[in-house]
User: Fold these one by one.
Assistant:
Number 1:
Amino acid sequence: MGKIRVLLADDHTILRQGLRKILEADPSFEVVGEAGDGREAVKKAEALKPDVVVMDISMPILNGVEATRQIAKSLPKTKILILTVHENDQLAMEILNAGATGYMLKDAASEELIAAIRAVHRGDSYLSPSIAKRVIAQYLDFARGKVPPEEKFSDLTAREREILQLIAEGYSNKEIAQMLYISEKTVKTHRENIMRKLDLHSVAELVRYAIRRGIIQG
Amino acid sequence: MRVGAAHRYGARPADRDRLWKSRVRAKRRMVIADAHQLWRHVLKCLIEGFGSYAVVGEASDGQGLVERVEATKPDVILMDVALPVLDGIHVLRHMAGSVPRPRVVVLSEIEEPEIVREAFAAGAMGYVSKCESVVILRRALVTVRRGFSFLSPSIARALLESLHGGMVSRFRRPQVPLIEVELLRLLAKGCSDRVIASTLGSSLNAVNFYRLDVLRRLPKTVPE
């Protein structure tokens, strides 16, 4: 059997370099690439077609949730394992819905990371115990018919979510237009739609919303 | 060649053993503190790979760090400032009086100038962003070993921005001599002390003095 080809996406370079060293000490892994933000992760995943992407959630430009959504859509065979410090169950459910099949916390041993990569590569799921407990609780609520209240966030399109993060990170319409290769006018329209759909009235409110949702860090 | 090696390590096994032990002892003894086990493991692997350090203790919170430091008396500490139970700044203040004093490098994702300033004021000698590469971390360790301070490029930039206009509305703008502004600019570019000294036409000692002085001048309080 060939090596498991892994792409590492995390904005902490030292952690990436260390994980590469640990994974490459095991002959069954090959680290084919690294990415420092979500957009780079999507680009490199599409170019390298790795077996597994190990992905952080809090990343600049494009966060792990949206990057997961985009990779899961364009590369259905690539498995995504989330590696994060967030013990937030809403975020975990959202990213599992977006297409990740593993969710582990950075407070785990490196042996656990290796086991988790193997599990998602086989096609199984891997959840850190503390997250598994919350996911099961949510599943039971769901099974008993307690449906969580409708979130306005799900009304947003993928592009709108992407732009929401960039606005919250402080980029101007012009800068966003350049990054996404669209016109400034289109960005302005997206911005208006985001504000209307989320019922927000200022950039300050939008930033608060983005922090509360875990789209950016406070 | 074999003769040379035998000469160097001593002919008798007892001599060889003694020399080998002294070489092991010569490694700098380090304690690592980070809230996350994966980070601690990664750092241990990377740092032991450098060859000149032995990781003698690990801690996942500030209280544990204080205990490990008292038990192992390390030469150097690599720590995050965001630690549970007792935060890193408090740990640094707690250790301020200890003799001999370990050299401390902070490795954190926190880049706020006021936290960086507090860390230096409490005795840290280096501050490295977690977004940096291993090369920068290694340079930080080498720099503090020589007795100099170290700021990683993005940290230096954040400090520079807080000196210039960036936070004018929040802080009284400090009076900074031109040479120190120039020094921060060079630090932000990631220049070595030697390069900075030759660019500014000063000695290495002067560079170190100016660096400390810049840190002293940075704003001390943040109005909420």
Number 2:
Amino acid sequence: MFSLIVRRIISALTTLFLISIVAFILIQLPPGDFVDAYASKKSQGGVIITKEQLDAMRIQMGLDKPLYQQYLKWIGGVLRGNLGYSWEYHRPVSEVIGERISITLILAFSTLLFTYVLAISIGIYSAVRQYSIGDHIATVLGYIGLAMPGFLFALILLYLGQKWFGMSVGGLFSPEFVDVPWSWAKFMDMIKHLWVPVLVLGMAGTAFQLRTMRATLLDELNKMYVTAARAGGVPEFRLLMKYPVRMAINPIVATLGWELSKIVSGAPIVGLVLSLPSTGPLFIQALLDQDMYLAGAMILFYCTMVVIGTFISDILLMIIDPRMRFKRSS
Amino acid sequence: MTDDRHININGKKIRRVDIATHWQLMWWQFRKNKMAMISAGILGIFLIISLFAEFIAPYSPGTRNPGYLAAPPMRVHFFDDRGKFHLRPFIYGSVQKRDPVTLRLNYVDDTSKRIPVRVLTRGESYKLWGLFKSDVHLFGVDEGMINLFGTDKLGRDLFTRIMYATRISISVGAIGVIFAFIIGIIMGGIAGYFGGIADELIMRLMEFIRSIPTLPLWMALAAALPRDWPPLRVYLVIIVILSGIGWTTLGRRVRSKLFSLREEDFVLSARLAGCSNARIILRHMLPSFMSYIIVDLTVSFPYIILAETSLSFLGLGLREPVVSWGVLLYAAQNVPALAQMPWLLITGLFVVIAILAFNFMGDGLRDAADPLAK
């Protein structure tokens, strides 16, 4: 088991290294660099910048060096906790995204929790009471959840909130808490607002995992060992929880990493629609402004979250599935 | 099996199912699934809309109704205000009224003015597929304009724009799926047929692409496109980006199927007969698992459509004057616009219906792909 964990760590680190290269290449892709974007913005404002000034800016920022040197400089800084400088905000990137990252993390993990609690419990219910009214409702809701893009759902909630309650369901804090430092009251206020984005982000994932849970559990319930245990007089609830559910939960846990990846994928767009103080709107703005260090740090952050999620899901799988523990090490 | 009917051959009674081809068996299995059949019908309608958008839409996507800005959907009536029935449906003319409190412009039906809706009427001229000149539209009115789904801020007819957007969005999906199919066949083919280092490298690549959160990646790639490109080029490059990330499912399927078929006798005999590698893969191995590939293609269709919608919604994908579902929803991005023009969300309904239909049809095809399984 230990060697398996070590192998997973090595593969996670390799993936991270590759991702850092991809992130850097992506940032470099837009034609022109930040200096060009800066100059065109300034010239729209009527300020004319000479070519010499632009070149001086480039040298100052190190944009005249070959690409691999820029990459080494960047990644070296990242490893030391220096994510570079955001030219759009005139502050270090780590300062710009600091608080927003914690909000994105809270959002992602609450969504994950919501998804799994709901998917597992409704999945069990749907499988045990197959073709009951509740099962049909869950199936229909599941299909709609899968087919409705998160941002559309967010838009509809926004509209309904506006129409019925005359208030915006967007944002994560009440107005009086927006600019105050963290406190217990602010935290509770956030919890109150959290359900909307969590619902929006978790909907598709819940629908998907629910279907998986229901299907695998149905397969298990028809197996002989269930009949045998029932014939042996095991109480129904204990029988259900102890064997079939434990089997059916494996594929769900195995896809935890992908689930997190999907949540992270959907987060920016939902964050934008619901105007959350998360990393999403910042990321989109950074891409539009070609603020490369900011965008790069963000891509790196998103991917790191997913890699960590996959890693956690591997470890969890080893804990709950003994076959995984003994497969390689024996 | 499904079909127990018999046919007579040379006086012998033979069960039809015993001599049916693989595709016939698939069809029999597929048509048993009602939801899948309904979905196929809905997708057929979408296809017709995208093929004949110019004819079905009463106007062109840029035409404005200057007297009817940001106005709600018009109702089509059969009964007038005195309860009298008219065989030909009609709409009322509308008058602008300013709300004395909010000062917002409202539109009120002018019941004294009935405008009949005409079917197959002449209107704006267009060129169908850039070839056939015509000015016949499915429906229209003689006086003013008919706006079944209301209008946007500039007074453009939402119904017309959704019809044109359906064409763009569906075609993005279709071309994207074709690209993904080609890349998937090539990469999966190399990996599965040759194995070894090529397989190892391609598998790693697929795993890597899978482990990256896709939307941020799409966004970053799309943001890299120059703003001054012509719309057609943006359209094509966006499709290439979407399929460049979306081919992995298909590649994996092709690889695993090729792996299991590689040792079959018919492959060996094809090789002994001197077939080239490409011919063995495309002519001999591919047809034996074509049905699975069709399932995968159907299932990946909605993903590509959704991806394009999301990108355009963010302003990173397609842009005006090209209209896709995402471009239309872009106008409904903020609360004030939504509160003023909730009918803009009708576009969302089209997105959801299309994706649901693709999902259900994919389910039906998946069951049908292996008709002898049960």
